[in-house]
From TrEMBL:
The lineage of its organism: Eukaryota, Metazoa, Chordata, Craniata, Vertebrata. The keyword Aminoacyl-tRNA synthetase does not apply. Residues 109-518 form the Major facilitator superfamily (MFS) profile domain. It comes from Triplophysa rosa (Cave loach). This is Solute carrier family 22 member 3. GO terms for molecular function: monoamine transmembrane transporter activity; neurotransmitter transmembrane transporter activity; quaternary ammonium group transmembrane transporter activity.
Length: 561
């Protein structure tokens, strides 16, 4: 008897599982606060060089910030046209001029200012941020130090990369709930340390540690809820869990609007993880994990509690209960992913799609913070656009299949990015609609790569294959901020060209993958290299089972997708 057999008796998605899934969906909501909170925490407002020589005059004359900028800052050519320099100022001795309150632009004359030498911002910057405080304004991360902002997001993704591997290993060793609780305690501590960082170096270190815990804890929650429900409900539960990530995006925009200070915003991001520590009293350990550790007594106890809450009776012989993954244990290695032609192709295509999804998804969201306009409204609209993605996936994958919707989502996103880059700013709403279509497409692609990756690899190397390919997601997250912010300096729309090209290539590569709708999950590497033989064996198995008397099954069950 396997645990899936037990679930058929006690309820594959009964009241107990629904309660646990609902609680863990709350865990998915604060994840985007860490993942894309840089849009608000790292906001770079309009800025220019501070000139102490004219500050007293400006204060005495009650000049506006724009009046002061017109006097002290030269005009330069930028990717958006002619504008005021953000990194240079006129090097003028203002005491030797006849500057007056009535004519801030009159003396020195425009001709004299143009002939004056310019210098770098040696006395800091003036920020026009209307009460919004980010770590950029606090630590002066502009001009030559602007790339430090990229490091803030890169450090988080480094933490994601290491944490997803380390905490995944920990969850297999000490249990799902123990690792989840330890991780949340770790997140609570490092989250507060991020909020109280005394300098930028400390901020980067604490940010990486914060990322180490956040993604690992999110993944443990995903694993636990899928282990507690029947096979028929795993995909729905997984998509729902990811849908609450989108709800978290809407909550993030609300929090950022209410809390304009980046440090207090970080505290708000951290508080939910303190609340999640209370799950110790409400959520049991995964019986599947307990079985894998030969802890049958505890697994039976928890299973009976689930049956009781579901108002079901457990009647199967629990003594014959065994770990249904025990037969698939093997010494898999990275070489197994590339040693045969088909596996080599799958590994390359899936890894590229993980990388592309992360780069384009993060890039499109972070772009909202640099294009101007109302960032709160833009962020809210882009978050709402994500909701149709889950419904479109559930609507198409069982009717059309996996490959075509997956490829179409990438190609749609790529086309939207390229079109958006060449739409003039005067056509604001049309540009916004096309950009939202791109966001919808990459959201679908991001959610689909998860289960397509799972369905393509054989059982003996499935976990390894998903782990290796998904590491490219975090590598993409490390690359994304540099790609966006540095290329946008050259031309604001240039990152969209790169995103569009990546998404187009990813979509084209997906068409080279086989369709997995209605196909049995491959068990061995030979099933991958000889898919026709795998399908024939599956059909024969079904024919044998149909001939067997009621209540009797064949020796080997074949799982269908």
């Amino acid at each position: 008897t396997t645990y899936d057999d037990i679930l058929e008796e006690i309820g594959q998605f009964g009241r107990c599982q629904k309660r646990i899934v609902a609680l863990f969906c709350l865990v998915s909501m604060p994840f985007p606060c860490a993942y894309i909170g840089i849009v608000f925490q790292g906001f770079t407002p309009e800025h220019w060089c501070r000139d102490p020589g004219v500050s007293q005059i400006a204060e005495h004359c009650a000049w506006s910030l724009q009046d002061t900028r017109r006097v002290t800052v030269p005009l330069v050519n930028t990717s958006a046209g002619v504008g005021y320099s953000q990194c240079e100022r006129y090097n003028i001795d203002w005491n030797s001029t006849d500057l007056t309150c009535d004519h801030p632009e009159g003396d020195p004359s425009p001709a004299r200012r143009l002939a004056s030498p310019v210098s770098a911002c040696t006395d800091g910057w003036v920020y026009d941020y209307e009460g919004r405080h980010s770590f950029v304004t606090e630590f002066d991360l502009v001009c030559a130090d602007a790339w430090y902002v990229d490091m803030f997001q890169a450090a988080l993704n480094v933490g994601f990369l290491v944490g997803s591997i380390a905490i995944g290993y920990l969850a297999d060793k000490i249990g799902r709930m123990k690792s989840f609780l330890l991780t949340n305690f770790f997140i609570a501590v490092t989250g507060i340390l991020v909020a109280t960082s005394p300098n930028y170096i400390a901020l980067l270190v604490f940010r990486a540690l914060y990322g180490f815990g956040v993604k690992g804890g999110w993944m443990v929650g995903y694993v636990l809820i899928t282990e507690l429900v029947g096979v028929e409900y795993r995909r729905t539960v997984g998509v729902t869990y990811q849908m609450f990530f989108s709800i978290g995006i809407l909550v993030l925009s609300l929090f950022a609007y209410i809390i304009p200070n980046w440090r207090w915003l970080q505290v708000a991001f951290t508080v939910p993880y303190i609340f999640f520590l209370s799950y110790y009293w409400f959520i049991p350990e995964s019986p599947r994990w307990l079985l894998s550790q030969n802890k049958k007594a505890k697994a039976l106890e928890i299973t009976q509690e689930i049956a009781k809450e579901n108002k079901k009776t457990l009647s199967k012989n629990i003594e014959t209960l065994q770990d249904d993954s025990a037969d698939s244990s093997s010494t898999a290695s990275f070489l197994d992913l590339i040693k045969t032609p088909n596996l080599r192709k799958y590994t390359f295509i899936l890894s590229f799609n993980w990388f592309t999804s992360a780069v384009v998804y993060q890039g499109l969201i972070m772009r909202l913070g640099i294009i101007g306009g109302n960032v709160y409204l833009d962020f809210l609209i882009s978050g709402i656009v994500e909701f149709p993605a889950a419904f479109l996936i559930l609507l198409t994958i069982e009717r059309i299949g996996r490959r075509l919707p997956f490829a179409a989502a990438n190609i749609m996103s790529g086309a939207a990015c390229l079109i958006t880059a060449f739409i003039p700013d005067s056509m604001f709403w049309f540009k916004t609609i096309v950009a939202c279509i791109g966001r919808l497409g990459i959201t679908m692609a991001f959610e689909m790569v998860v289960f397509v990756n799972t369905e393509l690899y054989p059982t003996v190397i499935r976990n390894l294959g998903v782990s290796v390919c998904s590491t490219l997601c975090d590598i993409g997250g490390i690359v994304a901020p540099f790609l966006l912010y540095r290329l946008a300096v050259i031309w604001l729309e240039l990152p969209l060209i790169i995103f569009g090209a990546l998404a187009f290539v990813a979509g084209g590569l997906v068409l080279l993958l086989p369709e997995t709708k209605g196909m049995p999950l491959p068990e061995t590497i030979d099933d991958i290299e000889n898919p026709k033989s795998n399908k024939e064996n599956h059909l024969k198995s079904q024919q044998v089972e149909n001939l067997l008397p009621s209540g009797v099954t064949s020796n080997k069950d074949v799982t269908t997708v």
